[in-house]
Specification:
This protein has 5 helices and 8 strands. The protein is an alpha+beta fold and 203 residues long.
């Protein structure tokens, strides 16, 4: 009986700790060399980080006029898994709640989703959500498939995901004049491998 009580208590603590009140993810911090590499990539795509507002009485630097041109502009970009997670940590408030994993043809995400206090049953708790999306390039078009969504370790039925589980969204909606057709027509190549993603755009 004592053993049964002990097991019940331990199980209750584990459920409370890991499922209802999990710790935030540890944000990725790049070393000096990785930071320099990332900054060069962001400069290539003209990425502007959100700087804090200037002190009272000072104006932010004015933009310099510049003629538009495409010659020499980068049409492809490659980010590592560490770089993507570092960008989350640096530029959004999702650093402790979202983590991205890159593997062969698969982008996976783990999300901690705090629930509002007024939400039934789970109010004030934190949902653990996992999802995976297949990304690859085949037959001249990108392939994008939702592999699934798990909540609290339980995979959701395909019917609850709008019947889109394991469906190639580009192929399914390519005939429509909308986002997926425009997206596919603008992609030259797309590669997701273990620890990195590379995207090249058409002219």
């Amino acid at each position: 009986m004592a053993l049964a009580v002990l097991v019940t208590v331990v199980a209750g603590i584990c459920i409370y700790r890991f499922y209802l009140h999990p710790r935030p993810f540890k944000p990725v911090q790049l070393n000096a060399r990785e930071e320099q590499v990332l900054e060069r990539k962001l400069d290539r795509i003209d990425f502007q980080r959100a700087d804090p507002p200037p002190p009272a009485g000072l104006r932010p630097a004015d933009l310099e006029p510049e003629a538009y041109r495409e010659e020499g502009a980068a049409r492809s970009i490659r980010f590592s898994e560490r770089e993507l997670n570092a960008l989350l940590a640096r530029n959004t408030d999702l650093a402790g709640n979202l983590a991205i994993d890159l593997s062969e043809n698969l982008v996976s995400a783990r999300l901690l989703l705090p629930m509002d206090e007024d939400f039934p049953v789970l109010g004030g708790k934190t949902l653990r959500v996992k999802t995976g999306v297949e990304f690859r390039y085949a037959d001249g078009r990108p392939v994008v498939k939702l592999r699934g969504v798990m909540i609290m370790g339980i995979p959701l039925p395909g019917a609850w995901l709008g019947g889109l589980k394991n469906i190639d969204l580009v192929q399914e909606f390519y005939g429509d004049e909308g986002f997926w057709k425009s997206f596919a027509d603008g992609v030259e190549s797309l590669t997701v491998e273990d620890g990195a993603v590379t995207l090249a755009l058409k002219e």
